[in-house]
Each structure stands twice: as C-alpha cells, then as structure tokens.
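Subgroup meeting minutes
Present: P.N., E.W., G.H.
Scribe: E.W.

1. P.N. recapped why we're keeping a running log of single-chain structure predictions: easier to compare across weeks, and new members can see raw inputs and outputs side by side.
2. G.H. added today's entry (547 aa).
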Amino acid sequence: MTALSMSLRLLIVAALATVLASCGGNLPNSAISRHLAGRYAGALTDSTAVATVIRDRGIRPPDLSSGVPVVEQLRAELAKSDPTGAYAGITYDLTRGNRLGGDWIVHTPDDMWGRKASDLPPGHSDSLVRLVHDLVASAQRRVDIALLQPSPDGPFLEALRSALQSLASRSRPITVRVILGQYPPDNVDVPAFLKALSEGIDTTRIDLSVAAFRSCVATEDCDSYSWNHAKIVAVDGREALVGGHNLWAKDYLHASPVGDLSMRLQGPAAASAVRYIDRLWQYVCANTGKKDPIALAGSSGRCPSPTPLPAIAGRDGVPILAVGRLGAGITKDFANQSDVARDMMLAAARHEIRIVQQDLGFGLGRADVLFPDSTIDRLIDFLRRGQGDIYIVLSNLGAKGRSGSTYSNDVTLQQLARHLRREVERRVEARDPLSRWEIRRGPDPVNALLCEHVHLAPYRFGPEASWPGGVPIANHAKFWMVDGRTFYIGSDNMYPVNLQEFGYIVDDPKAAREISAAYWTPLWQWSSKAAVSGSGVENCIFREVIK
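Output recorded in log:
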C-alpha cells in the first residue's frame, strides 16, 4: 500500500469514527449513572443500564472481610443478572485448579522499566511472537483464537503459519478456529487471510476455519455498534493467553511500540475462554449468509462444530472467575456480566483502587464525552468513605500505533478531572443544597478530597513521555486491582463502548504480589513522576479545572 493510499484510508477511518461517535443508538450500559438509572426499569435486556441491573436484581458487592472467597461471592451475585442461567459458563464462569507459571505475566515491550525511550532494544517483544507460536504448536485437539481486525500480520502471521505446519505434520486431526471482530468501514478479506494462514500447509489433517463479523450497527434493531474485541489464544481448553494484545506487528514489534498486558494460564479457566468463543461462533454460524457483514471461510467448506473439551478439574491451584460481555446483536438478554463484576469489585474496595487503562472517557468526534458513570459512581462512593486512595494511569493524549490505530480517545486529563469533580459536587449537593455555596467560598472540601486521594497520571515506563520523534507513548492495557489482592486482566476497557469482551478476575495473594512487583510498582514509580493530582502534587489538576 502506498503512503498516499494509507493516508487516505486513515482519513476515511477518522471521518467514520467521528460519524460513529456522534450517531444515535443506545448508550453503552456503563455510561448511565445511578441517578439516571431510575428512568430504566423492567425486564433485563441487552441495553439495560448496569446501574439498573444492579439495583433491580439486588446485586451486592463482595465482602472482602468474609471467610468466603471473593470470586465465589462475586459469581453468586453475577448469577442474579442471569435469571435463567443461560450465560453461566459463557460470560461468567468460576473455575478452580488453575496454574500460573513463572511466565504468566505477559507485558510488552519487554524489559523497558526505567529505560529511556531511545534505548528500545531490537527484538524487544519477540517473546510474544514465540509465545503465540509455542502455544498454538502445543495443541493436541483444537486451537481457538479470537481477535480484533486487522488480521495477524508480519511475524505474528508467520508464527501462526509455522505452528499450523507443525500441527499438520502430526497424525492427530486438529480443529483450528480463528474469529475476528471487524469494524467499519473496512471488512476483513477472510478468504485472503485463510490463504495466507494456510499457505504451504497440508490441511488434510487440520480443519481450519476463519470468520469475521460485527453483530450490530446503530441502523439495525439492536440500535448500537458492536463487534468482537476479545483477545484470546486457547489450546485444548487447557491453556490460554488472554488480555489486551492484538497480533499487529506494526504496533507491537517495531519502533514506538504500544504498551500492553495479557496473562497466560493453564487449567480449566482456559475452557471458560473457549466456551465464550463458542458463543461467538454460534452467532456467526446462525447468521452466515443472512446478515452482512459476516464472512466465513474454511478448509472443510462448512461452519465448524466445536470439538468436545476434555474434563480438567482440581481443588488446588488458583481460583479464577472468567467474565465477559456479548454487547449488542448476539442476544436480546442482558449478557454483559463483565460490567457488573467490575462495578461490584470497585464497590467492595476499602483501602486502594489501582486502574491502568487506555482512557476513561470516549470522545473521538463526539460533542459530549462519554464517561463510564456507573463505574465512576463506585469510585466516588469509595472516596466519600475517606479510607483510601485511587490510582489511575492512562495512555498519553494523541497516542497512535504505527498502523495508524489510535490509542487515545481524544479526552484530556482536564476533561476527566472536570467530570470527576462535577460528579463529586453533585453528590455533595444532593446531600446538602447549600453546600455548593460553601464549596465556592472555601475551604474547598471537594478539591481537598480529590487532590489528596485521586492520583491521576499519564502512562510512563521511564523518564520520557514520548518515543524518539515525538510519538506519544501508548498504553493499551486493561487492568484494575482492588485492595492489592483482587485484579482483572482482559480486553474490557473502562471507557463506555458496547463490544464483545473477555477477561479474568484473579483473587490470589501470590499472584497479586507477582503482578504488583512485575507490573504495577514499576509502572507507578515512573508514571507518578508525571502525576497531576494526589498527595505531594503541587499544582493539582482538580483546582486548575475550576479556574
């Protein structure tokens, strides 16, 4: 593709993003706050506000001081949002007997904590390519992959093709399914990707299928925009790589790479990921040839049937709660348990909340920025209890990958600070109508609360804010942690969108210590140097936004 045609494509994508962001359609479930949720009541549907689901179904946060494991409590509460149990094992699934090996934390670019941006070593993230290859090549029965378009390219495509070649050389038949979420204006050229993936491979022993779909656009009766955004590589329902990583060589393997986080595990939680993928394939197979755009191609010429998963169970090991969401178009039921789980865990916090995200707001051409107000309600509840601190690290404004993909939602830290301050003020006013006057006269309890206990910072891995050439450093990780013990790694952004997502909630002391030491502690050590609020920050942004 020429530079001119690439520039033209990016202009078209940017223009369409503006149209999508400003069009009608249902608000994402998490964009409706508790004080607006009273307008929404009745039967649970795919568009029911999260705050309404929580209120109407009597869902309560886990008690972290209870003797009952947190993930067990949370699983029981999530079941209240699924009265018929139709999505148990799909969008919420608790398993035991999982193992996190010595290399379970997958963070790229590798080994950059404390280094200058100009010190990026050659092959800085080749370990991710090797991991994908080795994981796929280890399959005995089936490989399940779910990703976002564009399809894997460069060394990632070569790694997948090499792994499939290894599988084809064995006598055992293997089922391989790759499903891609696709967003407008482009669609995935599924036959071309299938050809590239299988080039030079004897597919007589491999049942290889590729599909690409989106489940809804706002002009349809589902009245939203929705496609797959989950990132999963799973083999045999026994091992999985899950998190934020797309398999895009330009964004992850070359200069100015995107920062991202995934996790690798062995055990029955891998089967949770496969069952989630099965539900996506069920939708694709039921609608191929009936809805556009859904594309399917495969070596067998038919929609693939899932290979039965082996039974993997155990009492020992790490309990993991898989949580997902089906967005819009796949079902009319409420099946966005990932949103409920996040809100309930934040509501359970007593001492500390850590958040690492691309953004908390969604702009990209909207006249009004969308914020995850049901989640922000929980953060404000935590602040007003006055017992701890919130740490928030976000991608740098204007961050983009070499592919042209954006890793910034065009929302400034000032806009986020203003929204947080406004919501805290609204709470104070609701309690005492005269308090707003008192706030303006000072001393200012709202600013005192926010400036002391909300630590807001842009993403840093070292002393610099940008790569050589002035490219802002991008963060794509989706991570949160409560009280230093319970954490989430997956694909689900906190900013309000309505996509298909999947991730894991882990409540294990050893795993919490490991992710804190390997990821959170160095991340905050460097990001905190650019913090715009929190104790010790002289020019607190929350005071600046009211000037």
